[in-house]
């Protein structure tokens, strides 16, 4: 089985060493007279590269296992016959290698001559000119002429062997004299596939297999007829299984697979290392530019979260940053019925500050508040909550993180003592049993999913707990050992039943529990879960999970070796979200699966800085570092740093703000980088709350749905235009670096500072690094973090302080943060949302690979080609009962509201369950979700809504009126001459 590959290089060294790094005993050999010592198992090619000798290669790459097909890397080894390939030959003690003998040079030149004989020589006009490994290798071996006469080839549609074709002729159909010529495939919106330039090195196929794990590509045919195929004869790259991750494009040594942006804009000349602004994986990228123009995003091989891989969003979907919809000038209006009026920054800030101060003078200092963004940097989020506490002088601060992962903070805080995941992503290579509950990593966290699938192909076992059959349940070369398709809303019952099996069958790790956990609490918990009412057989009717499958899954997790649990919004977005998180923590402690590599409890955070927005004190009851605002010693730290008195009374969460607005006591809101009208539940209530406010300030890239009710619009900056940090799902603090100047003139933290100063503050930050220095000075888990340190180390996982100067990849190694681990009783309580005759189905929601959250970014890219609208998944049995056919418009109605969308029939969902995404405002899926929420954190219960489905002729009256109101609200007066 192939090794799990983690490239190892000195920081900043991007050389391709040809084959993966190995670990083992040291071996010393001589390469061209130079002694070099490398680990046992290292290839001769990599050993030569370590000595500074780069052996020519075409099929080899250090993120792929050695293949040995191109024969360009041959060497001579003293005492051996022949000329072995250096990529597939392991080193041996005392080996003497020669890479530049006359025989080797002659062989390499002959091999290269064969490649070039079947390759178009259009180098000057080729998009890969200057960035082509074939071109470089030809120069490296000294090829100056091709002796072969024109004949059979793959690049000439006329069949004459001509090496110079016009673009028009290159696109001629296949029915010409040359049957081997295949025209360029331009179906994918982001890259082209030109078979005429393919050298059949198989790197794209292997990258799709080994790195991505999709297996969408293959080599079809044999010998001279070999070619890369993306599926059946009827398929192209768009219709194939390709997920457009870009691994094949990155692997290609020629212009066979090439970004369309490079074809259009030219080969990039400089690069900046930054961090992706999509999901919580936190991939590192090289943003490659010509001047100030971004040409492409290339996954950075030193990125510790992604290890040189990417997904379609991070790799290609950055075009929204320059989209025509971006608002670059501040705008104001007196009333939400008025059109917007563009103004200068000074006027917009004065207008906003005067209104907010006026509201406080009239209605009290707690009448206004802020919402921070999980898409903005740590530094920006820190300043927004500081604006509330240090300028507004209240704790009315909340964040979108509360509507997704606040139960994680509560549940893990109660059981483990800290509000974050326990592992780094590298840990997955050492796991033996993986439990995925309420998460869809192939769509929501695809780069992590690729790493996970690789481990599963190596033999790890998988348990999936999800009402829907997601792709990870069964896909190419991966199949779950158990899929537990529970009824939505019964997570607690399933998790407790697993614990019942572990305890009653004596499968728990008693030694671990006695040493690491509170034994008295465990005994109380064990007595609770041992009750017959928690057995798989007793809860089967409730959960709809077969008792036999649940028992076998519990046994596998408890006895299968290192067990790791990964969970997502399907756990947290329930009325018992916090209870389920505590139940998951109980399972991990029961089996001793906390505190070492390959195990743990790992929340898959949805957005790029969900973890960071929580860390920075975005919640109304917590200051940065998860310290309660009521604690005098904690307040004293910030009062000294900020020079103000901090209110000890916790503030309002978003639902409370909206309730208070309807009641008339909450009047003003500063909302940075968040679209609560589309993302929060019960859309009617959100709209009513926003409409009742007298000053809504939206700070964002686009006129989003919330801006329909705004009075001030402050244009934001994209992640490409700012300095700062993001904190990903593994607590990794990654640098965000400015790739280009802000199109609006300011980074987002600067806009917040301008607003604060307009309201009377005296902030004087001149760079985001100064904000991080303040965070470090006031927040113990960040006390060792600075921009200088991140420049040196690349990234670090908090806690990072005197006790852990290099960060903390694995939490709770010797003891829990809370000292002892705490077992907590997890009583199942049914949600108040019930099915019945009027609403007999259960709706659950989720994401899709090509789109992101509310779609504000991805809908403004070519990603819409894969998902142009939200679709309702319905089981064929339920569809037949309701007269619904594939592609029909259906009415989706609940007790809260109704909308319409198209239906697709699938057995991915069980009878009685329907599913949709929430990426498109035209659907506004949250108009049907309820205001029920988690008992501890108010996290909305998005995943359980009782609904009914019926045929429809198209959009509802509400959708049409909503669209009309939105269009009216987005009118912008023409700029004055």
From TrEMBL:
Limits of the 4Fe-4S His(Cys)3-ligated-type domain: 103-142
GO MF assignments: formate dehydrogenase (NAD+) activity
Q: Which UniProt keywords apply?
A: 2Fe-2S, 4Fe-4S, Iron, Iron-sulfur, Metal-binding, Oxidoreductase, Repeat
- Which segments constitute the 2Fe-2S ferredoxin-type domain? 25-103
Q: Tell me the domain of life.
A: Bacteria
Annotated region (Disordered), positions in chain: 1-20
* UniProt domain 4Fe-4S Mo/W bis-MGD-type: residue ranges: 269-325
Reply yes or no: does the keyword Metal-binding apply: yes
Q: Which PROSITE patterns match?
A: 2FE2S_FER_2, 4FE4S_FER_1, 4FE4S_FER_2, 4FE4S_HC3, 4FE4S_MOW_BIS_MGD
Could you tell me which residue ranges the 4Fe-4S ferredoxin-type domain spans?
189-220, 233-262
Give the Enzyme Commission number.
Answer: 1.17.1.9
CDD domains cross-referenced by the UniProt entry:
fer2, MopB_CT_Fdh-Nap-like, MopB_Formate-Dh-H
**What family does the database annotate?**
Belongs to the complex I 75 kDa subunit family. In the C-terminal section; belongs to the prokaryotic molybdopterin-containing oxidoreductase family.
PANTHER family according to UniProt = FORMATE DEHYDROGENASE H, RESPIRATORY NITRATE REDUCTASE
- Which NCBIfam families does this UniProt record tie to the protein? Fdh-alpha
Q: What protein am I looking at?
A: Formate dehydrogenase subunit alpha
Q: Which organism is it from?
A: Paracoccus onchidii
Classification from the root reads: Bacteria, Pseudomonadati, Pseudomonadota, Alphaproteobacteria, Rhodobacterales
